[in-house]
Amino acid sequence: MAIKLKELVRQKELLTGGHRLCAGCGASVAVRQVLHALPENVHAVTCSPTGCLEVSTTIYPYNAWRISFIHSAFENAAATISGVETAYRALKKKGKISEDFRFIVFGGDGGTYDIGFQAFSGLLERGHRAVYVCYNNEAYMNTGIQRSGATQFGAWTTTSPHGDSSAGKGQNRKDLTAIAAAHNIPYVAQAAVHNWRDTITKARKAFQADGPAVLNILAPCHRGWRYPMEQTIEMSKLATQSCIWPLYEVENGTWRLTAKIKEKTPLRDYMKPQGRFAHLFKPGNEGVLDLLQEFVDEQWERLQQQCAE
Amino acid sequence: MAKTVAMVGTDAVAEAMRQINPDVVPAYPITPQTAVVEKYAQMVADGIVDSEMINAESEHSAMSAAIGAAAGGARVMTATSSQGLALMWEMLYIASGMRLPVVMANVNRSLSAPINIHCDHSDSMGARDSGWIQLFSENAQETYDNVLQAIRIAEHPDVLTPVMVLLDGFIISHSIDRFDLIDDDVAKAFVGQYTPRNSLLDAANPSCWGAFDGLGGYFFEFKRAQAEGMLKAPAVIREVGKEYAEISGRRYDYFASYRMEDAEFVIVAAGSAAGTIRTAVDIFREKGLRVGLLKLRMFRPFPQQELVEALSHAKAVAVFDRSDTFAGDLGGPIFVETRSAFYEAEKRPQLMNFIYGLGGRDLPMSLVNQAIEMFKDAGSAEQKKRIVYLGLRD
Ligand SMILES: Cc1ncc(C[n+]2csc(CCOP(=O)(O)OP(=O)(O)O)c2C)c(N)n1
Ligand code: SF4
């Protein structure tokens, strides 16, 4: 089914305006794209771990969600939604609920890659029918830009600062998308906010999956990445063009690139506009940039092979 | 007709759960609670109950899933022990803060380190301020009865507070005990159907749970409302106890008194130790010493006034604690609260604290006798030593 912008704009937004995310935040873009894929006449419960999205959309007594929402703690969104989804199956079986529901987590990278990792894996292993969306801004933003397992090598954050004896984060990010795929679940994809058509297509597949689905969506944060706030979509685009964030999916075990890269651009073009990498362009740190480029090249090679098989 | 069975304490929990047949049971194994999960999983596998089980990947996730399921409008039960309860700690506050009527059996076991799998009350005492109602059981019968009553208490609209039913690890959980089951249909009628007031799964009325209360919000009011649930709980616990007596013949209140009418020396204790103490009371009574036992059932909320009233005629009171507060020489948690309850009382008996049974150390009759000998001489040098670690090796 083709996705028409004309139709999307007529759809009711399930995340309303008036939430308090920063202007130009990638997270709300990701959420709205995913919710546009929710099948018609289907209800939904969404769950967020503690983080920017959660605190900004549910400031009591207001809340920006037109669907049911639950936040319980930071490390357990996957477990919480497991409970809700199970309650749904139990009550449906007993005839106490007749409507059709879907279950969604919108978790930050900290709540997914790090502290929430165990619960995330538990949800996938148990096979709950839920769509786990990681809006990935590559750091803990809500608590003031600390490093996470998704933070790129060399990036500045407040807990991976650069100084005389450090050039920023000293480790590469972990590959959560591949880890999710290794759970052998029906659908896993990596997406980015600039490519709305791709994200919505993937979210539709995720909602159709008969089992858990994972969407890892790059959602740039201008506060943490230190670029002008109107350039969020541009940052997202540069990330895919440089192949530091390729777009692909793993559907029932089959890997596929979903956006062709005509010409892979140098990582520098992506990093230069971001304050979090500024120190890498200063004398003495050149090697770090090369190492990151090497890591990205290797990962890209491997991904292309996986997708070609 | 009521059926008499011989089963271990974990089976008493599972039997009550079978009769309740909750919608969702998320759980994670830990000794000595594991047998509850195993037994219930078998009942699910055999189609005896139609609960959905969630084999969570940790206790933290088990309680998180319990919260999600209860917020989804399901009747939810689980069980844990010790480190498992400790791992749930963060989520205990969230369950009570969201006013979710989850019922959980906690098979009391000590907390590491050193690692020890045996009974003491330090796990549930650590959670005493988490906003959960806590009911102690003396044996398998009380465990079973408490679980059935817990559902009614938790779900009562005035209360809407999760309930923890406590049973002593191994002493109750793994000992075969004779107890009476209520008929299935009577039990089912007693617990009734559960209709949640709000639910995430109410399609017509989407709701927001666990919202952020950041900007000069209502957190304080929420907590006050939660405290209100706890204030209203005693009346409900008493009422449910009365109703339960009608179908079972067994009475339950905040505490149970044994030979208290004219008692000069009273022991306050909770859990399985009450059985041994009761026997000691009889023996000393025969010797002419007026001893009595006050067996505490409801530890949260704490029955301050009623306790003071019941103990006001005593000359001396010995509080038995199966855990410590490590607060210097303040004493164990039941002692601290009992003493605090007496602050405004006109007549204050001599109070003494006996800390016993940590890590499953046995409480034989000889130790109870020793304690009674020590505290019967109210005002003596021995008695002035307020906190005694009973049965410690030299
Ligand atoms: C157990 C626990 N540890 C730490 C925190 C503090 N905390 C709240 S949100 C957060 C970071 C969130 O980061 P992320 O998941 O990446 O989401 P973002 O804010 O970037 O959207 C932290 C550390 C917490 N709430 N709970
Ligand atoms: S700090 Fe970043 S992630 Fe948080 S609301 Fe602002 S832009 Fe979004």
Automatic annotation (TrEMBL), chain A:
GO molecular function: oxidoreductase activity; thiamine pyrophosphate binding
InterPro entries with a match to the protein in the record: PorB-like, THDP-binding, TPP_enzyme_TPP-bd
Pfam families: TPP_enzyme_C
Record keywords: Oxidoreductase
Signal sequence, renumbered to the chain: none
Protein's recorded name: Thiamine pyrophosphate protein domain protein TPP-binding
The organism of origin for this protein: Dethiobacter alkaliphilus AHT 1
Gene3D superfamilies tied to this protein: 3.40.50.970
Keyword match Oxidoreductase: yes
Automatic annotation (TrEMBL), chain B:
Organism superkingdom: Bacteria
Any GO MF annotation of the entry: oxidoreductase activity, acting on the aldehyde or oxo group of donors
Keyword Oxidoreductase: yes
UniProt domain Pyruvate:ferredoxin oxidoreductase core: residue ranges: 263-364
Gene3D superfamilies: 3.40.50.920, 3.40.50.970
Occurrences of domain Pyruvate flavodoxin/ferredoxin oxidoreductase pyrimidine binding (ranges): 15-240
Keyword presence, Oxidoreductase: yes
Pfam family, one: POR_N
Transmembrane spans: none
Keywords assigned by UniProt, alphabetized: Oxidoreductase, Pyruvate
Gene Ontology BP, a term: response to oxidative stress
PANTHER family: PYRUVATE-FLAVODOXIN OXIDOREDUCTASE-RELATED
Family membership noted in the UniProt record: Belongs to the pyruvate:ferredoxin/flavodoxin oxidoreductase family.
Record-given protein name: Pyruvate flavodoxin/ferredoxin oxidoreductase domain protein
Native species: Dethiobacter alkaliphilus AHT 1
Lineage: Bacteria, Bacillati, Bacillota, Dethiobacteria, Dethiobacterales
